[in-house]
Amino acid sequence: MLPCGQPSRPPRGTWQHGRVTAATHSSLFPSASEVSQFPAPPQDADAVLDGLDPEQREVATALHGPVCVLAGAGTGKTRAITHRIAYGVRAGVLQPGSVLAVTFTNRAAGEMRGRLRQLGAGGVQARTFHSAALRQLQFFWPKAVGGELPRLLERKVQLVGEAAARCRIRLDRNELRDATGEIEWSKVTQTVPADYPAAVLRAQRDAPRDPAEIGQLYAAYEELKRDRGVIDFEDVLLLTVGILQDRQDIAEQVRRQYQHFVVDEYQDVSPLQQRLLELWLGDRDSLCVVGDASQTIYSFTGASPDHLLDFRLRHPQATVVKLVRDYRSTPQVVHLANGLLSQARGRAADHRLELVSQREPGPPPVYTEYGDEPAEAEGTARRVRDLIAAGVPAGEIAVLYRINAQSEIYEQALADIGVPYQLRGAERFFDRPEVREAGAALRGAARFGANDSLLDAVVDLPSQVRAVLSTKGWTTEPPVGSGAVRDRWESLAALVRLAEDFAAAREGATLADLVAELDERAAAQHAPTVQGVTLASLHAAKGLEWDAVFLVGLTEGMLPITYAKTEGQIEEERRLLYVGVTRARRHLSLTWALSRSPGGRASRRASRFLSGLRTGSAGAVGAGGALGGAGGVERGEGGEGVRGAEEVPVAARRRSRTVARCRVCGATLTGAGEMKLMRCEDCPSDMDEALHGRLWEWRSARARSLGQPAWCVFTDKTLMAIAEAVPSTDNELARIAGVGVRKLNRFGTDVLAICAGEDRAEGEAGE
Fold this sequence. Notes:
single chain; alpha/beta; 30 helices; 18 strands; 10% strand; disordered N terminus; disordered C terminus
């Protein structure tokens, strides 16, 4: 048996020689001909490691003890963890049947199983939390409870509706969906009905109705389930947790079966899933978790990054590996993503990862301001058409927006110029139930409006539409919070805006004319389409990637969304934009409109998240110094510190974790600026003023050539620290806080030359 982490011979191919791939295009359901083209499984355990970069190799060979992988977007996390499992299996350290890999979607679980088979590690269980729990529940229920497992309720909405009727609470279809979502949130956060109102208050959550009513409805729903002898999907986890807590013999049987766990997307685990994982583990620590706190965008469902961020607190001996080499996106896209997170606040921001692109340079991101929304949609459609004409496949292009109601105008714009498209994660606009209902109501009003008292007091077309749609849930002000009720309102509001634009474009247009226009649009968009441009919300885009991404509607009130009030909610909106940015491989476009309709008042402004990122915008962005910045591996208690890329000087790979003391007076340093200078702020400086001036001129010239603010090259404090230290080698420069691996590689040659007396003030050195 090979000792963990010690290959018996050097690898045949290394990551520096072009053997690293992003592994992002694997098919979940390959054809027979494609199967025959798959490479043969690696010959032995060592061959499994071929082509991994240094940090991925650290993940793959860290087979014992708790391991936490902080993996930035596009850094090959699935590749790393599947090779880890395969290496352990092929080395004889792990038995395939004793490994349980859990993730959040059937798609991800299927992809993981496929990759493991290709690596010669078939037999490993890769499942969702619910799937794994359901299998265990079905097996142990007769022993733990007796009889057959209650029937699983496929859709709980109908039963929630019955519970509402029992409580004499009137809910329309959208309110019913929102109430169902609240029940699901309560269960995954282990909140019982009586505690729901207090839990909502604690979580600063916008309840769709009075919290006391939701609590009452929740209790009635649970009672109905017991009466009917059914369970729902959340019960699968709750009941499995209950059995494992109450029956030590069953818990031990599960632990004998599964001795090693891998959890993907760990930033998305709920408190209930975390509890189940703890019961699976028992007192063992054979656990590997993978996640990125900067991609936490599902907190409204009960997901929390705290389990990921607190991993080292729960497991002080854990190995932490940081993956920051981005194989997906160009340096230009990665730079924007890093800049976006450099403005972030909160716990997740403290652990952000600074990505380093491994791709060739590409075009810079394009920022475009439009006068109105139709112009934005038409401009986007034209640019999409131009990319297709330039050879980018339509299936490799995506238009991403904050809410599904924004899709209609882009559906229309693409249809108008003959570009095929497909919607992901939502129905086409004219297929949505509320839009169909609204269309029927408008059609009826157009036919019988003369006898409709609702229209007696209104004359112009937009007012007629507002009057009709007010019976379907449209109001002048949007409902508070998010959810199905808000989604319905947004769809109806889109129809109102369409009526206003139609009336402005066609003087004297009638309600019948508008209905005919809507029918034409619906027919055009319902035409069969081939694989086309993807239209999706930012939430639906998570886990996907395209060659070209258009991020649209980036205005205040949309991103961040109006109902995001607290700092935590605002930061989740920022992370949502970050997810959108990191979906792009090469082409990235960010657009916004100053008004809703042509000729309208230009009252909107670009999203605050773009401040400091685009040329000429206000609000300088702070340096992206993060607790997780550089890639590498950090050992647990008694370990050897941080180790990064093999080609980086030793000083850049290892940062001392001893107390920082002033090099002048010996006092303990606490402030970030003091630690950068390695002296107290009021202690005398021995800075070379002339050198500082030359560095300042060089930084200004370099920033101009890069089209970036000066701090993006080096901050003032870092520049001062360099002028005080006067480094002469890579190692000496790397010891200065604020330099880091990326900036050492990018600017080190220039800085050392200036320190040696050479003139680089014009920034003539290349990248």
